[in-house]
Every structure is written in C-alpha cells, then in structure tokens.
Amino acid sequence: MTDLTQMGQRAVAAKYELQRLTPREKNGVLARAAKLLTDRTEEILAENARDMRNGEENGMHPGMLDRLRLTGQRMEAMAQGLLQIAELPDCVGEVLERTVRPNGMEIEKVRVPMGVIGIIYESRPNVTADAFGLCFKTGNAVILKGGSDAIYSNLAIVRVLQDALEECGVCRDAVSLIEDTDRKVTAEFMRLNQYVDVLIPRGGAGLIRSVVENSTIPVIETGTGNCHVYVDRDADLEMAADIIFNAKTQRIGVCNACESLVVHSSVREFFLPKLAGRLREKQVELRGDERVREILGEECVPACEEDYGREYLDYILSIKTVDSLEEAIDHINRYSTKHSECIVTKNPEASEKFLREVDAACVYANVSTRFTDGFEFGFGAEIGISTQKLHARGPMGLRELTSYKYIIRGNGQIRP
Amino acid sequence: MTDLTQMGQRAVAAKYELQRLTPREKNGVLARAAKLLTDRTEEILAENARDMRNGEENGMHPGMLDRLRLTGQRMEAMAQGLLQIAELPDCVGEVLERTVRPNGMEIEKVRVPMGVIGIIYESRPNVTADAFGLCFKTGNAVILKGGSDAIYSNLAIVRVLQDALEECGVCRDAVSLIEDTDRKVTAEFMRLNQYVDVLIPRGGAGLIRSVVENSTIPVIETGTGNCHVYVDRDADLEMAADIIFNAKTQRIGVCNACESLVVHSSVREFFLPKLAGRLREKQVELRGDERVREILGEECVPACEEDYGREYLDYILSIKTVDSLEEAIDHINRYSTKHSECIVTKNPEASEKFLREVDAACVYANVSTRFTDGFEFGFGAEIGISTQKLHARGPMGLRELTSYKYIIRGNGQIRP
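^ inputs. structure came back:
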C-alpha cells in the first residue's frame, strides 16, 4: 500500500523548495514539461491504450471511453495548456495591502502559495497535466489521486512531468500521483490534513459528497450545478428563448448548463409554445407543473417535486410556473446548488432584485449561464467552479490557488 | 432534543431577510441590543449567578470561574463592544472587481454575507454578544453553541439580543442558541452543512481538533499558537530580550504568546544569562537543549522532543539552539502551528529570508508576536485568529466573515 505519510512529508519538503523559485524558473519548468509531453506522446498513448483496453473489457460507457481516450491532438492541447499557463502573470508575492500602525510597525498582506494541494478526480487524464500546471505556477506542490480507469495514462503523464522537473533542477515531489486505486487509500488521503493544506475534488456529485463528508482537510467543493433561468413578466421573449436554448443544449454534460426553467405565469401562454418549438430541434424532454402542461399538453410530461432538485446533465428541462419575482427567487434559492442562476428581463428593478437576493456563485441578468468558466471570465485557466462560500466562489483561476500571510516589520515594538 | 433541522431552516430564512437590511438598519439593531444589555444587566447577572453556583459546586478551576463571571463592568464592556462594531464601516456590497468582457457582458465581483455562520465556543459568555455583533454587522445569521457551563448566561444574553431584533422589526432567528448541552447535539450540529455555510470553533486545541475531524461544514480553524521567537546572530540582544519578555509574559494564556525561543549558537553565551535574568522576575521555567544547559546550568531543565511542539499557555519557555538561519527556519516550520513567528535581527537579508520562508499566518521581524490581534492590526474587532490557509488567515475581522459573488449583466449573450 502507498505510504501516504511519506508522500505527504515529501510534498511538504517540495513546497518549501517551490516557494523559492522565481517566476522565470517556474515558467521554464512548464515549457519543458510541454516539450516533453509532445516529444513523448507515443509513450503516453501506449499507456493510454492499456487503459482503453481495460475500459472496453469492463464494458465502459462509450461517452466515458471518449473522455478517457488520448490522441496526438489531445496531447498537443495538453502541452499547449501548460504553455498558456506559463504565459499568465505570476501572482505569488503580490502585496495585497500595506498599513503602518500608530506604533510604527508596518503590516503587509502578501499573496503566498497554499502549500500542498490535493486533487481527487475522475477519468479524464488531461486533468493530470492541467492540475499540475495550475498548482505549480502558483508555487504549490500537488498530490493527485486520479480515477483507477486512467491509472496507466496518469502514471505516464506524471512520469513525464517529474522528468521535466528534474531536468530543470527542481525536485520531482512537486507532483506526485497516488498509484494505489484501493478506496481505503483514498479515505486515508482525505485525512492527511497534517500535510495537505487544501483538497479539491473534481467529478460527479457522489465523489464530491464523499469528500465533503469524510475529509479532515479543508475542502473546496466544486461542481454540481442545478442552474435555473427565470423568464420574468418583462422579459424579451426572443432573448429568453435564445438564452435557454444555449444554456440547455450548447453542451449538456457540464455544470453550468441550464437544468430548470422558471417562468412567470403572465408570459407562459405565449412563451412556452415558442420555446418548446426551439427545443424540439434537440429533442429536449420537458417536465412541467400543471400550468405548464395546460399550455404544452402532451409535449410536456408532469414534473414531480424531485425534478426541481435534479442536475440532469441530459436533454431534459424541468419547468416551474410562478406568479411573481419573489416566488421565483424563493424557488431558486430553495433548489439551487448555488452555482449559476439567470434572470431574463427588461426591467432593471427586477433584475437588480434578483441579482442581489439569489444566493449563488454567479448570478446573471440576460446572459447564458454557460459563461461560468475561468476562460470566459478572463482568468486564462481554471481548476474548477467552487459552489461553496469559503475562500473561493465561482470559477477558480490562479489567484484562488493562493493564500496570504501577514508580514510585520518593526524595530522592537512590544505590546503595552 | 433540539430540532437542529428546524433551527437551520429558520436561520436560512433569516439570512435572506438580513441581506436586505441597510447599514443603518443593522446599526440600529446593534445600538438597541447594546442599550438592552445595559438596561437588563440585573436579569443577566442573576442567570450568570446560577452558572457560577453550578461551577463552584462542580469544583470549577478558579481561572475558569473568573472567565465565566459577569459583572456590571463586564456587561458594560459587552454593550460597548456592540456599539464599536456598529461604528465600523459596512463592507457588504463592496464591489471588489469589475470587468467588461469582449462580448460586452459586465462582470462584477461583489462582497456578500456568508449566509449562516455556526460558532462553537467554550465558557466565556461575552463571546455570545461579540459573535452576534460581528456576524450581524456582516449580514449573517448565526447559530451559537456555547459551553454548557455558561448555558444560563448565554440563554439570557441571547434572549436580550432577540428582543432587540424584534423591537427593530427584524426576525429573532438572526441569532439562535443551541440550548441542548448533549454532545450528540454538538455532533449533529457539525453535520448541518445543508444550512450552515461556515463553522468557526473557538476554544482549546481539543475542541478545535474535534470540529476539524467531524464537521461536514467548511471550518475555519482558529487558535492554537506554538509561537517562536528566533534570536539571530545579528540580533540587537537588548531588543531580543524585551521582545521575548513581552511575548512570553505580558499575558500567558493567549494564542499569540511566545512558547519557544530559538537561539543562534554564536549569541547564546552572552544572551541566555541576560534573558534568564529578565524572565526570573516572572519565575518562567526554562526547558532547553544541552547547549542551552551548558550556559544556564541548573536554571534550565532539559527539554524533551515533545517540549518543542507544546503550546504551554503558562510560565514555561522551551529553548532550542541552532547554528544557522536555515536551521532555525526548518525547526520553526517543523514545530509551528502556523500562527505567529518572529525573527530578531539587524540583518535585513536574514529577516527577509525568514519572513519569506516561514510558513505562518503572521511573520514578524523585530516585533512581539503579541500583536497578532484584530484590534492591533486595525480591523476594529475580530472573531478569532485563523491558522489555516483557506479563505482567511490570521486575525479575522468583518471582511473575513463575508464571501463574494459574481454578478453578470448583459443583453442576451450566449456562448458560441
């Protein structure tokens, strides 16, 4: 069994080394890693083929197999991702605030790396390189625990990353992968708070719930998005249909897709048939309450209570009728996973009330929820979307992988 | 048994009400609460007397009894504390960042309340009013779980706070107290992540460890401080003795007191006898390694390995000799609880290296560690000192009790 204590201690030793690297040195490692990923594509693809064979033999779902598969093109994208991270500004060391106290001591609040970051993720092997790139750029050591389905791919990628570190004179422990796929090891990893400063789970709702319930390491909860679009009585209905069509169908398996429509009763008669027409193109199943079915008839199946709490990640949309903005806000605050919520309205009072009172990481007025994404927000890259309120909320870029410390300089101040 | 689910739901309902209050309305409640605490001092003191009697009957330690005791003066200080919080600037709603993306959508990052804050604390009843004041000022509902020793005092104080809320037309559920002192209820409270956004334990190391290990709510770990002062070869030794005397003896039971001295071997011969002389005034017990005992002889008992990891909270100081700055940094990073660490030196290269490489919330050059405190940092008030890296680090004032959300305004942007 993997000796996690030893792995933790080595990562801690690495974190002190990483915080001494200059931005240029860090970017040099990222460039070297990108080069090696390209040069050694064949080696990685061969290991990926082993994972693919195992997946096929185990009857893995075709969608999952596709997420697992690496190709020359995907390897190239992985390498490019590291180069893009290298080009982003280095935020470590940034002075966030500075004050001089009446007794003359100077207090600086300075951005520092977290230290050691743990990441638990599911199948996609490209996360391995991405997560390393983001953590390394911010001066953090990272311990990865990938899905057992991708173990050979992940091992090969980490070996290449470690070789790049070593070639640049940086210790290999800046990134490590837990090879053991036993669940007990994962459980032990979640309790490694002596060495790991923060744990970020990336994956489905089950994985995230398990981490939140069992981890003693501070967790940043990412992920599940039961995102609503509310069509107000004063909505531009063309715009509303465009936004819902986009947020529901542009990509269905993502956390910022729209899962539920909340519609004001005064527009439902005109709006719902129009929307249903649009969604028919993509064969979206509609599940609505009684007042929706009065309008759409057989085209809409009855929604049960449970539907309003579901993240379908599929061509399904639940629909709820409300009689007021307040009722819409209450409904959304009740069922929301606090990810991304949208109002469509031409009435600025209504939109400002919605933006203020809906409790979610990202609240939109007249914009598709699909924009909740680090690249779309201009962060350049992201490690995930946080749905909790501690530390970071919404898309998490480089800054969200840092902490701060207070540095106090003086000349002998003592407390009276 | 207390119905925690119901209490959680009521706190969630309250949080939506609180986020609609204006700064003036919130300050009005704080002023009213201060007034009522003063007016109803007799009522609270009578309940406190019940706790004191129980404490005496149960053989409570005199130091603990003193912490539990309320007096007219302490009640006045409690009321003044709320008035001081009312006078601090309101940070909720502050726009932290604003960007306009190429597609025209405008993104604002806005400071918002956390929502519902849970606080678990030990005996001192003044925490009840303080915690309410800080949470309420930042628009948060708060659920309190105080020590069973102070239950009658806490109930009386919360009743007064709730009456103040009601008189100002705000729902009483903005503050609630878990009356049940059963440990099972505390365990259940720690798993109330469906309703509580963040949990802050305040108390001894045992309480904090228990919360970190058992909570499914995101925790801000506060507290334990095994704080070091390192006396460099280039230290001003007068200053070093003043700082250590202050950090060790000015108040011994606090988390920012100095617990361990790290001394460069080249100054120990001259410095240690000098320091021992100063500390003799306060009868501080010294526990040192062999090289310290060579100098101090019988005045210093041998330190065992365990001593270097202890937060004594007493008139005891451990002493470790090192031969270099690097060794000092390694020793401190090994035993530190990441609270407050100090170097005394006239050499700016040494101090900058120490400030950069020591991993702690607050790192000091030539300043007593006793300044790690919200008031001393100019925050005006604090809820505790965070020793973790997530969200908030070091003294936590009002801003640290808030989160943020992204507000995106547009005119129909959809994702291509």
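Residues 23-39 of chain B form the longest helix (17 residues). The radius of gyration of chain B is 24 Å.
thumbs up if we can close this ticket
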